[in-house]
Amino acid sequence: MAAFPTMKVFILASILTFVFCDIEKRDLKTWSWPDCEKYNETICNEAKQNGSIVIYVKASSESNDNLHYVFSTIGGPSVVVLRTTNVNANLTFNWEKLLQYNNSLIDGAITFSDPQPNIEYKFAVVFTRLLEYDDTDDSADLDYCEKHLNLTSWNIRDFSMFHWSSDDLKVNASTNTFVFNSTSDVMIKTNETRNGSISFAFSVKHDNGRASDLPRMLYIANETMFDFVIANYTPSFNNSRFALEVVVVSLSNEAASADMSVDLTKSIDDEYTPGVFEIIDWLTNPKQSHISGFFQWKPVSYISLPRGRNTATKVEHSDLKNVDKSSSSAKLLNNTVLLAVFNESLWNGKTVKRMANISFGLPKDGFYIKNNYTAWTAAIGYGTPPADSISITVIITISAGLGLPVLIIIVGGIYSIIRKMRKRSSGYEPINAGSINRNYTQQSD
Ligand SMILES: *[C@@H]1O[C@H](CO)[C@@H](O)[C@H](O)[C@H]1NC(C)=O
Ligand SMILES: *[C@@H]1O[C@H](CO)[C@@H](O)[C@H](O)[C@H]1NC(C)=O
Ligand SMILES: *[C@@H]1O[C@H](CO)[C@@H](O)[C@H](O)[C@H]1NC(C)=O
Ligand SMILES: *[C@@H]1O[C@H](CO)[C@@H](O)[C@H](O)[C@H]1NC(C)=O
Ligand SMILES: *[C@@H]1O[C@H](CO)[C@@H](O)[C@H](O)[C@H]1NC(C)=O
Ligand SMILES: *[C@@H]1O[C@H](CO)[C@@H](O)[C@H](O)[C@H]1NC(C)=O
Ligand SMILES: *[C@@H]1O[C@H](CO)[C@@H](O)[C@H](O)[C@H]1NC(C)=O
Ligand SMILES: *[C@@H]1O[C@H](CO)[C@@H](O)[C@H](O)[C@H]1NC(C)=O
Ligand SMILES: *[C@@H]1O[C@H](CO)[C@@H](O)[C@H](O)[C@H]1NC(C)=O
Ligand SMILES: *[C@@H]1O[C@H](CO)[C@@H](O)[C@H](O)[C@H]1NC(C)=O
Ligand SMILES: *[C@@H]1O[C@H](CO)[C@@H](O)[C@H](O)[C@H]1NC(C)=O
Ligand SMILES: *[C@@H]1O[C@H](CO)[C@@H](O)[C@H](O)[C@H]1NC(C)=O
């Protein structure tokens, strides 16, 4: 039982080190269509009507160690994160350039105001495609389906085709939340609307904590959490399943970045997310955690509301692949705000670009059509991704579980030694004791 106080001291010590070495709170300031009012108002109106949304969030600290987030639908849903130090600069947005949809013009559309800050690191996550496939074998395995399904079983949509409604874009300044929402009538151009939608609901964090909704992930002041939801979407096939194609781009101002990695951490504790014992961290620069971004999720999505163990299904990810300059994914990247932030360095050798598919579903879960709903939560942030420590309850349970048998063995051992010693001193020997035993007794005598 002496193990408890030491464990507690250890946990307290690690909490304290966490508190003292980190930025725990940031001030957030959010702008939608930033700087747009400075341009000809027809430009702003067109941007809003075209669903060209840009949200800028500045997450500043007292030491001017700031994170700048750009969330945009231009060319596809994208999240760009820049970390700056030394001065309190803001990003500025050139809307004439942003709306040209012209590579040579969008270039340089997003820059910092003077005095120019040090840009220590920048990275971005872009959702390039929505994959829909007819999983006739109910494998829920994207790799298998890529090999076994012919083209007619796929419906692959570029996210650049989607129209994002801005009429109902509400940036809640008190919670720093906003939603990119695309309704299916503009998305698939049929008359069967069924009120379907695809949405990304972002929540920019300013402190450390734990989300109240399943999968109840821990969060830190360096990140943004989001929910991706496909609701009431009319599927193309009876056995439709969905997947996202995601590209992650990383550029450090130090020497060439290392390759990215996707790390899976297992835990024995599912206290916060029942039935889920894993967390996945896609690290953009894993060799140097102090200049790395992360993209984190638990391998679980939900097929209806409310979220619970009964409505949970699996999320799988493919291996990382390089994004080649001439690939079709490169073409999509070239039209997003990434080009406005990375400029010509987007395609130079120092910038690392990797893609993966993230797919939803489990064999026998009834496919998408069972509930016409899929929801997945993930987070994008800077630094070391938050990790669940084993909770006190679990430590006590394990200690009790391990401690009791150990105690019984020790007490039992001592008891039998004492008994043996007593027996020996009484000179008693069982009549039918084996010869080896008897020899041993004779020798030691
Ligand atoms: C804004 O642009 C429109 C069309 O390009 C033009 O007709 C209008 O005169 C411009 N307004 C101002 C105030 O420059
Ligand atoms: C720059 O950002 C700060 C908040 O961090 C804000 O108070 C200030 O008004 C911004 N400056 C400009 C020119 O937008
Ligand atoms: C808005 O969309 C229309 C049609 O898609 C296009 O012709 C126009 O150039 C776009 N306007 C801007 C400012 O991007
Ligand atoms: C993009 O803009 C440049 C510079 O104005 C122009 O030369 C070029 O033709 C444009 N390209 C397209 C595809 O519109
Ligand atoms: C594609 O698959 C469908 C259904 O499995 C089948 O009916 C069709 O003939 C296939 N087409 C080709 C070109 O193989
Ligand atoms: C912002 O969120 C808070 C908390 O959820 C809510 O009480 C408030 O009504 C929201 N404000 C707007 C403008 O939606
Ligand atoms: C997206 O829009 C649809 C249709 O207006 C609506 O039913 C749905 O609730 C919206 N999604 C989110 C996350 O706001
Ligand atoms: C949608 O409805 C319009 C008339 O309301 C009709 O002309 C059009 O053909 C329909 N489109 C589809 C894809 O059914
Ligand atoms: C779509 O939503 C409207 C209003 O919320 C509702 O009246 C209508 O019945 C819905 N349509 C379907 C097909 O669910
Ligand atoms: C993307 O942009 C780069 C740089 O402008 C260019 O070299 C490349 O060919 C473009 N890729 C595609 C597929 O358009
Ligand atoms: C899901 O959508 C399909 C096709 O649009 C419809 O037939 C089915 O009833 C829907 N399922 C549920 C549970 O609403
Ligand atoms: C959060 O970001 C700051 C730099 O802005 C970094 O020093 C800190 O280590 C990050 N926090 C975590 C938990 O990685």
Would you write up a description of this structure?
It is a single chain. The chain is α+β, with helices and mostly antiparallel strands and 445 residues long. The protein has 10 helices and 21 strands. The chain has helices spanning 3-20, 41-49, 95-98, 103-106, 142-148, 184-188, 328-333, 338-342, 392-426, 435-444, and strands spanning 27-32, 54-60, 66-72, 78-85, 91-93, 110-112, 118-134, 154-158, 177-183, 197-204, 209-210, 218-219, 223-231, 240-252, 261-266, 278-283, 293-302, 312-317, 321-322, 352-360, 373-382. It has a 17-stranded antiparallel beta sheet that branches. The chain has a two-stranded antiparallel sheet with strand order 5-6. A hairpin with a 5-residue loop joins strand 3 (66-72) and strand 4. Helix 1 runs antiparallel to helix 9. The longest helix is centred in the C-terminal third of the chain and has 35 residues, at 392-426. The protein is globular and about 100 Å long. It starts with a helix and ends with a helix. The model is unreliable at 1-20 and 427-445 (pLDDT under 50). Residues 22-23, 65, 83, 220, 222, 382-384 line the site of one 2-acetamido-2-deoxy-beta-D-glucopyranose.
What does the main sheet amount to? 17 strands, antiparallel
> What is the radius of gyration?
28 Å
Q: In total, how many beta strands?
A: 21
Tell me the structural class.
alpha+beta
Beta-strand proportion: 25-35%
Count the DSSP helices.
10
What is the residue-averaged pLDDT? 84
Bound ligand species: 2-acetamido-2-deoxy-beta-D-glucopyranose
Distance between the termini: 40 Å
Helix coverage percent of residues? 10-25%
